[in-house]
Here is the input.
Amino acid sequence: MADAKKCMICGKAAPLKGAICDPCQDRIRREAMGQQAGERAQAEQELKKQGVTPAPPPERKK
Here is the structure.
């Protein structure tokens, strides 16, 4: 099992897989995904300002 070391983000002593604890990894991952979604919306707005209608995203298979 992993040793109890301090997380580089929050500083709490916890068993780590790398240098960051699981709760911090999850938070960073959610922030990154939200930023990607925001950038996509911003890019579509810029295209509309230029008069280009963006194509709808392809349907995802479930």
User: Anything to note?
Assistant: Residues 3 and 15 are 5 Å apart (CA to CA).
